[in-house]
Inverse folding.
């Protein structure tokens, strides 16, 4: 019985080692272009809204519901814009500001703007949160 138990333990260890080793050897794929939206609670804790569809696609997209957003991050798109109404209408475009360091290469990060360039520190100009209904992202050329 002890030989059977030892053999079973050894097989289990080998299988776990192979599974873990196999997973660890897969290269980590960087996420392609995407936009992320964050809410904030009364304790200043951020929560990413990760179940929003089409976050990795260019073009105009409506939120399933109007959501109060605190911060926005985008990676891989040329630029994005947020809107207070469905359909990405120009007259509903929202102004944001970059809350990171001043940029020598990206003028959009030095003044309030409607053009969100790549980065993770975009906040709404003069608002803690604002209701967002749609967004538009332009792919890299």
């Amino acid at each position: 019985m002890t030989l059977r138990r030892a053999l079973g333990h050894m097989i289990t260890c080998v299988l776990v080692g192979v599974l873990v080793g196999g997973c660890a050897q897969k290269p980590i794929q960087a996420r392609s272009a995407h936009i992320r939206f964050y809410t904030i609670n009364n304790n200043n804790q951020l929560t990413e809204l990760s179940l929003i569809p089409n976050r990795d696609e260019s073009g105009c997209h409506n939120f399933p519901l109007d959501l109060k957003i605190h911060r926005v991050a985008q990676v891989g798109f040329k630029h994005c814009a947020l809107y207070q109404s469905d359909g990405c209408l120009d007259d509903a475009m929202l102004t944001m500001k970059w809350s990171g360091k001043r940029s020598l290469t990206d003028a959009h990060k030095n003044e309030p703007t409607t053009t969100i360039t790549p980065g993770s520190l975009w906040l709404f100009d003069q608002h803690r949160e604002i209701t967002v209904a749609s967004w538009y992202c332009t792919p890299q050329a």
About this structure: DSSP finds one helix and eight strands in the chain. The chain has one domain: 34-139. The domain at 34-139 is CATH 2.60.20 (Gamma-B Crystallin; domain 1). Strands lie at 34-40, 46-48, 59-69, 71-75, 77-83, 96-98, 119-124, 130-139.
